[in-house]
Amino acid sequence: MTNADFFMRFPAGTKLSNVTDAAGGTNVTFDAPDPATVLEFYRELATGSVHFTRDSDNVINGAGTLVWHTDDNNMVLTLDGEKVTLTSSPR
């Protein structure tokens, strides 16, 4: 992905679909790993790095959003219980 944030990372074993990689933002759907693993990875990433600021974590029972940002991008992880989507857009 050429338009993702420089500090963007993906969990081990990631498989993606519905990839959009444009100057106006990126969007991916995770086919693997499972939603709980993806959520835990990004919760840890968004709180354990000086490059990210976690804005909100409204995920309950596997559904909701986790939102964080860098100096350059806003990141939104959306979970619906079965599917996880990550969207990045310029700030």
In short:
With 91 residues, this protein is mainly β. The protein has one helix at residues 35-47, and strands at residues 15-22, 25-32, 53-60, 63-69, 73-80, 84-90.
Describe this structure in words.
14% of the residues lie in helices and 51% in strands. The protein has 1 helix and 6 strands; from the N terminus they run ββαββββ. The protein has one helix spanning 35-47; strands spanning 15-22, 25-32, 53-60, 63-69, 73-80, 84-90. It has a 6-stranded antiparallel sheet, with helices on one face. The relative contact order is 0.23.
Q: Could you say which structural class the secondary elements and strand pairing correspond to?
A: mainly beta
Order of strands in the sheet with most strands = 1-2-6-5-4-3
SSE topology string: EEHEEEE
Shape: globular
Q: Average pLDDT across residues? A: 92
The largest pleated sheet is described as:
6 strands, antiparallel
Distance between the termini: 18 Å
Tell me the fraction of residues in β-strands, as a range.
over 45%
Strands, total number: 6
Ranges with pLDDT <50 over ≥5 residues? none
Strands, helices and their partners?
Blueprint (H helix, E strand, L loop, with lengths): L14 E8 L2 E8 L2 H13 L5 E8 L2 E7 L3 E8 L3 E7 L1
Antiparallel strand pairs: 1-2, 2-6, 3-4, 4-5, 5-6
